[in-house]
Amino acid sequence: MRAITELPSALSSKPRDFSLPNSSWGPEMMRLYERYNSQCEMETEGGEKQKGPWKRLPSYNRALKFATGGVYLSKIIQSKARLFTRNIRDPGAAFEYVLFVNSEEQKCVCIFQAGHLLEGPPGHVHGGAIATMIDTVTGTHATVLSGPVMTANLNINYRSPIPLGSTVLLESSLDKKEGRKTFISCKVTNTDGSKVHSETTALFLSINVSHLLLGG
Amino acid sequence: MRAITELPSALSSKPRDFSLPNSSWGPEMMRLYERYNSQCEMETEGGEKQKGPWKRLPSYNRALKFATGGVYLSKIIQSKARLFTRNIRDPGAAFEYVLFVNSEEQKCVCIFQAGHLLEGPPGHVHGGAIATMIDTVTGTHATVLSGPVMTANLNINYRSPIPLGSTVLLESSLDKKEGRKTFISCKVTNTDGSKVHSETTALFLSINVSHLLLGG
């Protein structure tokens, strides 16, 4: 029986949820977080749970959610691999972000605060860091809509540079589903929506996760 | 006179060139590095320099090359900002890469070894990390060809996933130049070219760097 209670610490201790506020989140990041978080599942005065239109998605720094048991599980637990967007632990230094999904409207939003380690052009966010957030948001959205997927195409139009340190909004919406294909659009704007930073169309293909785990 | 000799250490000490081999580079990375490096500028037996078709580009973790003096220079030196692709110092953990340019053929190649901190799908490189390398290689190539530019469009087709830890080749070539526009194509393959990982077209717009520095 001991063998069962002595699970590896990666499983028995609760992993950190990176999408909860930390001390590095600025006023703009907090304000937008509160806006969407207040529209998530709520408790009424009578103590009952009331469903809200939005749902906050937790975010970890490992691919644990794909661990389904046996050899793959142990391979993943032992691996040093870390999710690209969560590989720097210093709060506020790189990607600070939180995703909310709205199932009814088939929309997803992400509030993203860009840290000083994401520099591309002097004083501004690297185009690759922006692409990384776009892939993350549209890929997560496609997974919510269609199950496991891989990115097949990203077509990104960069409209205006994002200053390092700023908070921006990524809004993702479903265009259509066709067989294995899920088409998503994504817009990156400043927090009041008055300035467009980029516009993207993305295509995702549904996959069988076991192929990835076996195919290595 | 002291004031002049006591330059900030960021200027007086030579910054690390990240595109030189380190102990984390695997045999495949080293083999390809040697292939292109041996075709760079060489010294003949008589001690004369002989020009080769390729040129290795150095790579730093700060935007120092844009520092042209005065208030901007001091702003950049004091800044904590680091280049996105060079923000992790642990060798081999994230992006290990080196770029070579061939002016005559208007081509650029990048040898890229993907570390364990770049995970997206379990065991494979994040689509955003691939996009980051594509933006880096095509953007650097466009800068060599056209001077300072900003990314205007990246259209990336992902053909097959890249296993974490592997070394891949990025090949960038000029399609055309039209006024302020530079059109570049980029292919990512395995090291013998038998497997295509992604194909990209990219558009860059020539800019005046001072706008970025002033505009913040």
Automatic annotation (TrEMBL), chains A, B:
UniProtKB keywords: Apoptosis, Cell membrane, Cell projection, Cytoplasm, Fatty acid metabolism, Hydrolase, Lipid metabolism, Membrane, Mitochondrion, Mitochondrion inner membrane, Transit peptide
GO molecular function: hydrolase activity
Family recorded in the similarity comment: Belongs to the THEM4/THEM5 thioesterase family.
Catalysed reaction, written as an equation: tetradecanoyl-CoA + H2O = tetradecanoate + CoA + H(+); decanoyl-CoA + H2O = decanoate + CoA + H(+); (9Z)-octadecenoyl-CoA + H2O = (9Z)-octadecenoate + CoA + H(+); (5Z,8Z,11Z,14Z)-eicosatetraenoyl-CoA + H2O = (5Z,8Z,11Z,14Z)-eicosatetraenoate + CoA + H(+)
Main location: membrane
Protein name: Acyl-coenzyme A thioesterase THEM4
Organism ancestry: Eukaryota, Metazoa, Chordata, Craniata, Vertebrata
Subcellular location: Cell projection, Ruffle membrane; Cytoplasm; Mitochondrion inner membrane; Mitochondrion intermembrane space
GO cellular component, one term: mitochondrial inner membrane
EC number, as in UniProt: 3.1.2.2
Membrane topology: Peripheral membrane protein
